User: Which sequence fits this backbone?
């Protein structure tokens, strides 16, 4: 290949979403890489577009009883219970390391027992320069409404997003469940309340028993992740991207550059790698390289050239 021809196939993986520039579209998904520091010896976090931290809540959470993870052919069940050290410990002990990142963007996953909890966490972190955006995990139970998910009721979800919106000018992403009856409608309600984008999707509710008839997870049910989630996530990403026109982070079942491309063609602007990175910590970097090669073979000059091009 001549030098001019090689230059013609060069692909830029950089992309700007909700006012934030990412050096490439591959992120570490929430809950699978801790707060970044935990995986820094095996993953070059700075080579990625960014990371979504483990959940942060107002008070510390011990999480669910063990076992918290169970393997099943081709997939994984987990029920960690959003265990985290709480807001104060996050600020004192974990933020200092995140402040040292210069290329990878930091998105903080936020959870709460009530809508007010989300606003409290966001308000407390709103002025932190190293935080690029917040991801609101609205799939967790709303204890003020009998334990139903925040995202299951458009009015409740809208109130939650408005509260968080009032607490910060930084981008807000709403993480959606894969079992919503009408994901586009739910997303539009969140967008009207001030959401800047969406993460699709969270894990799929699931349950398994062991040979003795006991639940394999200590909490009973959990969330299914891994390859079977890919077509589900791609469909929801497509619906939400087309239904709102807002940026989407595609997550669920991504193991390769080809999987990442599925989400981009569906309309996602970024992708997040979770379960695959647990099995192979180098997977996110490999996926970014594979995606670049795929785009080059298609003659694309940038990630933006393929976003939303799927039929």
Assistant:
């Amino acid at each position: 290949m001549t030098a001019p021809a090689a230059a013609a196939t060069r692909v830029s993986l950089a992309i700007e979403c909700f006012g934030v520039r990412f050096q490439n579209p591959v992120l570490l998904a929430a809950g699978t890489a801790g707060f970044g520091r935990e995986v820094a010896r095996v993953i070059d976090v700075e080579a990625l577009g960014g990371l979504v931290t483990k959940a942060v809540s107002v008070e510390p959470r011990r999480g669910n009883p063990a076992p918290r993870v169970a393997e099943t052919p081709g997939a994984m069940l987990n029920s960690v219970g959003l265990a985290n050290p709480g807001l104060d410990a996050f600020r004192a002990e974990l933020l200092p390391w995140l402040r040292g990142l210069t290329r990878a963007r930091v998105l903080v996953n936020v959870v709460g027992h009530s809508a007010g909890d989300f606003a409290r966490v966001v308000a407390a972190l709103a002025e932190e320069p190293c935080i690029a955006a917040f991801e609101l995990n609205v799939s967790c139970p709303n204890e003020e409404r009998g334990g139903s998910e925040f995202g299951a009721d458009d009015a409740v979800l809208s109130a939650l997003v408005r509260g968080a919106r009032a607490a910060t000018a930084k981008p807000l992403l709403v993480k959606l469940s894969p079992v919503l009856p009408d994901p586009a409608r739910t997303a539009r309600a969140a967008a009207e309340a001030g959401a800047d984008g969406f993460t699709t999707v969270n894990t799929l509710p699931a349950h398994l028993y062991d040979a003795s008839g006991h639940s394999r997870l200590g909490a009973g049910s959990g969330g299914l992740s891994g390859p079977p989630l890919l077509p589900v996530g791609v469909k929801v990403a497509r619906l939400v991207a087309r239904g709102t026109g807002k940026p989407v982070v595609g997550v669920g079942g991504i193991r390769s550059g080809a999987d990442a491309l599925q989400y981009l063609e569906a309309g996602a602007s970024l992708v997040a790698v979770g379960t695959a990175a647990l099995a192979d910590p180098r997977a996110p970097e490999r996926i970014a390289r594979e995606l670049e090669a795929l785009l080059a073979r298609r003659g694309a000059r940038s990630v933006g050239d393929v976003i939303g091009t799927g039929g």
In short: The chain has one domain: 10-63+85-205+227-305. DSSP finds nine helices and 14 strands in the chain. The longest helix spans residues 283-298.
